[in-house]
Specification:
Structural class: alpha+beta
Number of helices: 11
Radius of gyration: 20 Å
Largest sheet: 8 strands, antiparallel, barrel
Helix content: 25-40%
Distance between the termini: 20 Å
Amino acid sequence: LKDTMAFIGQLHEEKKRVDLDTIDRKMVYLLSLNGRSAESSIAKALKISKERVHYRMKRLEKQGFLHGVLTLFDHRKLGISVHEVSLSLHPRADLSTLQKSLENSEEVNHIAFCSAPHDIQFQVTTKNPDDFVQFFDAFLAEHYTMIHDYSISKILENHYTGLLFLLQDLEKPKITEQKGSAFLKEFKQKKRSVGYSIDEKDKEILLSLGLDGRIPLMHLAKKIRLTPIYVKKRLQRLIEEGYIKNFIPFYSVSFLGYQWYVMRLRTKGISEAQFLSFLKEQKNIAWMTKRIGSWNYYLSIFARNNTELNTIIQEIRNAFHESLVDYDTYIIFKQEKYTPLVL
């Protein structure tokens, strides 16, 4: 598996399309609930053979729609800081030089090109805020001639809200099997109240899972030189303690005719639990991030056109009009780098 993953946006010059039938949609939806779900478990839920599930997953990978399974971590529990920088560039800025510099930086784990008011945004992972300041000061010193303006936000939490839009009006399939290495039981259990500090072997496990969330336990055990049973116990603890939040599929949703929009909100007096519960019921909203900055919530919305986007925005406005101070939206054209870091 490659060390980084790329996303092609709808407005990118390479427009591709894939057609997902009912089984494909339900299969990817089940993966979105738990990307480590066994092919046999998915097959049982969809009432088809394991071989058909395997064939369909490989076909979607070859078509460029499915890129693998990512592991979503709680970076605050890991003791690391994540900041997002949005840049507005001068018209004659050498974008290729800037992009190459960001791609070669170990601290930068996410790069995306977007519409106004900014041209490019990237996320920086460091051990603490002071390290970010040091990184950004050096970055500005090197590239200030290309930068017209910038803004910075600190990411506090990431919440994956699902892929309900894939089902459209289809009935939700369910996986009922508790066995295997999907750790369904552990995800359902309440997190432990006693603190748990990860060691170097735990870090090796997390690094291995970052871009390969479906890696078999036998392969993972061999890679980090532990027995499969011991690796499984460590994974169970990492999930129960909340270090691992989800195993999620990485996909190019633009191939289905959707565009990736970001809605930024500034709120006051909002019930976060109620807000998150609302978002999880909205078919077209896949992510919510809580931040410190000019905007305190960012939503990733997948819509087929501006009319559909406007409908989603109006639903949010109607539901939280008393708490919504301001909002805006922009488009993600493409993502050039995604590398989850565990320091």
